[in-house]
Specification:
Radius of gyration: 17 Å
Number of helices: 7
Order of helices and strands: EHEEEHEHHEEEHEHEH
Structural class: alpha+beta
Distance between the termini: 36 Å
CATH superfamily of one domain: Leucyl/phenylalanyl-tRNA-protein transferase, C-terminal domain
CATH class of one domain: Alpha Beta
CATH architecture of one domain: 3-Layer(aba) Sandwich
Largest sheet: 7 strands, mixed
Helix content: 25-40%
Length: 242
């Protein structure tokens, strides 16, 4: 087997399978976003959850087990539906977008305890750092004058990108990262790729996020997972938007 090219990172490492089973996602409670409680945050468990349409979130009470959600109405961003205003286009020209050059810093910024409704605790942070080391979790970063001013992170499995959180320290910086992510997901498989944002909010809706029923999300997930990973998402050199 030929060695990878220098600018082509190795394939993600598949971890040992989870000791937990998430069951049939089509049989989850049709009225409740919370579908499971417990399990662990081992890499194999996290990947199994995403492949079943779930994602984890702590309850916020120390000592409580992990909560697992599969929203009845799922927020997704169609790759051809991103709304980019004139001011956001200007911001894109004023910033540099990079991938995976500061994953730990992005994760820490997203988990800043001073942020309202912060949910990224030490266990979650450690779990996603492990996923990043294995090649599954990625950061899309916004830089200006050599300073990290915004970004987002999420998990990429085949044609799924499951967005977890974003942050900004300058106007539009998180939006610029989102534009950069969408750019990198647009390829010959774009029609079947799935950009998951968990729940829609008024802010995300203004950027083009729509809600789909759980059954629709699961059907799209089944189409997305077998796709090849986006080549431009995993490139590590800094890239400047033109």
């Amino acid at each position: 087997m030929p060695d990878p090219q220098p600018d082509e990172p190795p394939e993600p490492v598949e971890p040992p399978p989870s000791a937990w089973a998430f069951g049939d996602p089509t049989a989850y409670d049709a009225l409740d976003d919370l579908v499971a409680i417990g399990a662990d945050l081992e890499p194999g468990t996290l990947l199994a959850a995403y492949r079943h349409g779930l994602f984890p979130m702590p309850s916020g009470t120390p000592g409580d087990p992990m909560y697992w959600f599969s929203p009845v109405r799922r927020g997704v961003l169609p790759l051809d539906g991103l709304v980019v205003s004139r001011s956001l286009r200007r911001s894109c020209r004023d910033h540099e977008v990079r991938v995976d050059t500061a994953f730990a810093d992005v994760l820490s910024a997203c988990g800043d305890p001073s942020r309202p409704q912060g949910w990224i605790d030490d266990d979650v942070r450690a779990a996603y750092l492990r996923l990043h080391e294995l090649g599954w979790a990625h950061s899309v970063e916004t830089w200006r004058d050599g300073e990290l001013v915004g970004g987002l992170y999420g998990v990429a499995i085949g044609g799924l990108f499951a967005g977890e959180s974003m942050f900004h320290r300058a106007r539009d910086a998180s939006k610029v990262a989102l534009v950069g992510l969408v750019d990198r997901l647009r390829d010959e498989h774009a029609a079947d790729r799935l950009l998951d944002v968990q729940w829609s909010t008024p802010h995300l809706a203004s950027l083009g996020v729509v809600e789909v029923p759980r059954a629709t999300y699961l059907a799209r997930l089944r189409r997305a997972l077998p796709l090849p990973r986006p080549a431009r998402l995993v490139r590590t050199p800094a890239e400047v938007r033109e």
